[in-house]
Amino acid sequence: MEVDCEGCAGCCIDWRAIAPAASDHERRGPRQPLDDTYNLVPLTRDDAREFLDAGLADALTPRLWRDESGVEIDGVSVSAIGGKPAFFLGLRKPPKPVGPFDTDPTWLPTCAFLDPTTLQCRIHGTETYPEECADYPGHNLKLEQRTECERVEDAFGGNRLVDDDPPADLPGFLLGPQAVGQKVFVFPDPERLSGVVGRAAAGALTDEDRALFVAAAVAAAPGTTEVNRDRFESALSAAREADSWVGRAIAEWEERAGGSRADADGDETPVADPKLAEEVEVARGAPETPGWRE
User: CB of 276 within 8 A of CB of 244?
Assistant: First the structure.
């Protein structure tokens, strides 16, 4: 497997707004996500623990699904396992000024850890780098499923998927029942999500809401729907205290993209300049990225 990621980051950005044709590849099947995020990276329980221990719980967000056969909360029927709401945990995607595929920079939902200037991951190769990111697109190739690399090629040209042979040492899949407690989690107390599900459907989750799901994922027992209650409460306390450069940067990106800050000419339309990452992210402690070798 070999991919050319320079100037791309297609798997880290929701690039639907600049695509020449509409795409619904993540919205097929019987269950529809409550959120509108594309390319959400599903984290494992170990990933979640690494982020929590690193003080980066404020970079995480849950995904729930509409499911008429599930459990109803806030008037929304969501997928459940054994009567407990089911969810993924992923990385937040705030709007950032990015210009992938040699396009002019614009505000696009972008992984919280992607450097807008180099389009490289700020945590690549670190202990917090998600397993799914490290393996991508290996699992797609193994299952003979279309990759984001190929979608970028179709939309913008170029050769992103250089070698489509899946790695020989590809880790095992977490599919079906074996994913429960490892990548698909359950929330132990449905009644505790009163108000939360409604906010999720409205795209208005709070820090407290997200912390609840981080705690449930961290406290999950692999292969079961059990959640360690003591571990849940300690993880919830730690998640609530998260105040990382990521969370602070997300708040400012959202403010800037919303046009609440005028540019130098007093224009309320926010300028999409990737160099803003220096003051929004790097100045807050974000790791630098190496750039691309000539």
Answer: no
